From TrEMBL:
This is Mg-protoporphyrin IX chelatase. Keywords: ATP-binding, Chlorophyll biosynthesis, Chloroplast, Ligase, Nucleotide-binding, Photosynthesis, Plastid. GO terms for molecular function: ATP binding; ATP hydrolysis activity; magnesium chelatase activity. InterPro entries: AAA+_ATPase, CHLI-like, ChlI/MoxR_AAA_lid, Mg_chelatase_ATPase-isu, Mg_chelatse_chII-like_cat_dom, P-loop_NTPase. Residues 13-186 form the AAA+ ATPase domain. It is found in: Plastid, Chloroplast. One of its GO terms (cellular component) is chloroplast stroma. Pathway: Porphyrin-containing compound metabolism; chlorophyll biosynthesis. It comes from Linum tenue.
């Protein structure tokens, strides 16, 4: 789960993460703690869309000063309405003053940042469609009362949920770049350690955070370096062919699986400080890239992640 989140921060084009697991396994805690690791970005001052000053498409803005700010993390509540998510048009202002007045929603706020949906499997289907559509195209369009407004909405979509409360539709699952499965820890010693750490945090949150500060800063620098070097990472043609062979033999629909696996392997190599992808990097990321894209067989008892790993070793050996 942590690796999937880090790889998406390094390369947002991977397409987000879906985290499924038992309740109380720290899914939301992990996602929300990602904020402290995010690098800073340059934005146009006073712009509600966090536009990039270098971006020629930045809403056709006149040149304004740019400021540095931390990447945004926006929480999407389950009860959110479509207007709150997409933004709405101020009809009164449009009629009285004759200007298109747009009230930006959560998608605008999440531009160039992270949008987190807890219990995504309980979210209304049409809202999930809107989110995935914006995440895939990088734009959000609002059509209302004959007025049409588009704005950039490029964000990393992170969803989490408990499989007991219902699965996500397969075509929605397929739109998430990676899928992480989280189980409850069975080792008693490790459980005790988690309980003790939690108690230590409750006693003195400040001291707890400072005890991990050095490790966290090191990881932050590692992420910054990985983002900078990502463009120079190479993947050999024969490795690409093998990735596609694994996807083809597992009957993965479409080509998203191939694309995401290539991107995730490059991001992992970059995180390790390498300039070339190895088979080991692919073995690490391929289960998370493909497990949610396999066709569900009701009679199959084996975990889909294991099926992917078995097929990987068969093709790569």
């Amino acid at each position: 789960m942590k690796l999937c989140l880090l790889l998406n921060v390094i390369d947002p084009k991977i397409g987000g993460v879906m985290i499924m697991g038992d309740r109380g396994t720290g899914k939301s805690t992990t996602v929300r703690s990602l904020v402290d690791l995010l690098p800073e970005i340059q934005v146009v001052a006073g712009d509600p869309y966090n536009s990039d000053p270098q971006d020629p498409e930045a809403m056709g803005m006149e040149v304004r000063e740019s400021i540095t700010k931390e990447i945004n993390m926006v929480d999407l509540p389950l009860g959110a309405t479509e207007d709150r998510v997409c933004g709405t048009i101020d009809i009164e202002k449009a009629l009285t003053e004759g200007v298109k007045a747009f009230e930006p929603g959560l998608l605008a706020k999440a531009n160039r940042g992270i949008l987190y949906v807890d219990e995504v499997n309980l979210l209304d289907d049409h809202l999930v469609d809107v989110l995935l559509d914006s995440a895939a195209s990088g734009w959000n369009t609002v059509e209302r009362e004959g007025i049409s407004i588009s704005h950039p909405a490029r964000f990393i979509l992170i969803g989490s949920g408990n499989p007991e409360e219902g699965e996500l539709r397969p075509q929605l699952l397929d739109r998430f770049g990676m899928h992480a499965q989280v189980g409850t820890v069975r080792d008693a010693e490790l459980r005790v350690k988690i309980v003790e750490e939690r108690a230590r945090f409750d006693r003195n949150p400040k001291e707890f955070r400072s005890s991990y500060m050095a490790e966290q800063e090191k990881l932050q620098q590692q992420i910054g370096a990985a983002r900078a070097c990502l463009g120079s990472v190479q993947i050999d043609h024969d490795l690409k062919v093998k990735i596609s062979k694994v996807c083809a033999e597992l009957n993965v629909d479409g080509l998203r699986g191939d694309i995401v696996t290539n991107r995730a392997a490059k991001a992992l190599a970059s995180l390790k400080g390498k300039d070339k992808v190895s088979a080991e990097d692919i073995a690490t990321v391929i289960p998370n890239c493909l497990r949610h894209r396999l066709r569900k067989d009701p009679l199959e008892s084996i975990d889909s992640g294991l099926l992917v790993i078995e097929k990987f070793y068969e093709v790569f050996s």
